[in-house]
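Quick sanity check, Tektin:
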Amino acid sequence: MVDQTGADILSQIRQGNRPSVTVKMATLSIKPGHRYSVPDWETSNRQMGDTAAYKRNVSHDIRQEARTLRNETSNKTYWDKTDNSRRLRDRINDLTRWKDNLASCAQEVDTEMETLTLTKEELERMLAATALPLEVAVECLTLRERRCGTEVVSDPVEAELKKEVEVIGGIQKTLQHRISKAFEQICLLQEARHQLTCDLQNKMDTLDVDGTCLSLTETSRDISLKPNPMRLLPGFTSPQQWEQFSRSNVSRAREEMDASLQLRANMKLTKAQLLIELQAQHMATDFALRKRAHQLEQACSELLWQQKQTYDEIAELEQDIRGLEDDLGAKTAPLKLVQTRLENRTMRPGADLCRDEVHFGLVEEAQQLEATIRALKEKLAQAQHSLQALQQHQACMEEDLSRKQDALFLEQRSMETRKRLATTAHTELTPDSIVPLANSSGRHALDLL
C-alpha cells in the first residue's frame, strides 16, 4: 500500500476531491482532561488582552495621578513654607515697628520724667527757701510780743506780719500740694514706663524667637520632630488683643505724659503767681515795719511754757520713733522669708506651676507684710516730720527768747532781720546757699532704667 504525504492529501481536499488514502492504523496518545473549544480559546485570548489593556490604563492613571500629586504636594509644601516665611517676616516687621514705637515712647517718658523731676525740684527749692521768710516773719512777730504799756497796739505792722505768715503758709501748702501731685505723676510715669519696658522686653524676646524660626531651613541641625507642636497653650492671645495690649500701653504712657505736661505748666504758673504774691507781701510788711519798727513785745512766760511742752513732746515722740524703727526692723526677716518662698516656687516646672492654696497664702502674707511695712514707714515718716517740725519750732522759740532784751534793740534787730530777705525772698527764692531737696528716688539726678 502506497502512503500519501500530508501535502498531497491537503491538495486534494482544497480541490474538492476526496482523497483516496490508505491509512495505516496506529494507537494515538490523547492527554486527559477538559478541552476548550476554539471560540473559548479566542475569547480567553481577547479577555486576556482586554484585561492587560485595562490594567495598563489603571496603572497609567495612577502614575499620572501620582505625578500630579507629587507636583501639587511639592508646590504646596514650597509655597506653604514660602508663605509662612513671608508671614514670619511680616510678623517680625510688625514686632520691629511696635518695638521701635515702645522704645521711642519709653524714651519720651524718660525725658518727661526727668523734666517733671527738675520742675519738682525747683518747687522743692522754692519750698525750702520759704523757710527763711517764714522764720523772719515769725521772729518779728515773736519779738513784737515783748511790747509793754501803750506800745501794745494792733498796728499795721502786726497785721502785715500775720498776713505774711498766712501768705507763706498758704504758699507752702500750695507748693507742697504741687510737689505731691508731681511725685504722684512721676510714680504714674514710672508705672507706665515699667509697662512699656516689660512689653518692649517681650517684643525683643519674641523677635529673637521669630528670627530664629525664620533662619531655620530643611538642612538646619536644630530641627526635629516634636510631640504635639500644634497644642494651644494657656495665655494665647489673638492678633487684635496683642496689638491692643501694646496700643493701650503706648496710649496710657502718652496720657500720663500729657497729664505731666499740663501739671508742669500749672506748676510754673503757680510758682510765678506765688512769687508775685510773696514779693508784694514782703514789700507791704517792710513799708509798715519802717513806720512802726519800735513797737515789739514778747510773751516770755507763754513761750517758756510752749518750750517746755515742746521739749516733753519731742522726748515722747523720739521714744515712739525708736519703737516704730524697732518694729519696722522686725518685719524685714518675715518679708524676706515669704518673698524667698514665693520666688523659689516660681521654679516649679510644667503644670506644677499652679496657683494653689500655698501660693494664695504666701501672696496674702506678703501683701499683709508689705502693707504693715508701708503703714509703719508712713507713720515713722509722719513722726519724723513732726519731730523735725517741733525741733525747728523749738529753735525759733529759743532764738526769739534770746532777742527779748529791750525795745530799741528789738526794733533794730527786726530791721536787720528783715534785711536778710533782700537777697532771698525778693529774688527767685533759689539762692546758692540753699541745698536742693532730693527727688522722689532720693537722688538729685534721675537714674532711669
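Posting the structure with no commentary besides this: The longest helix spans residues 38-129.
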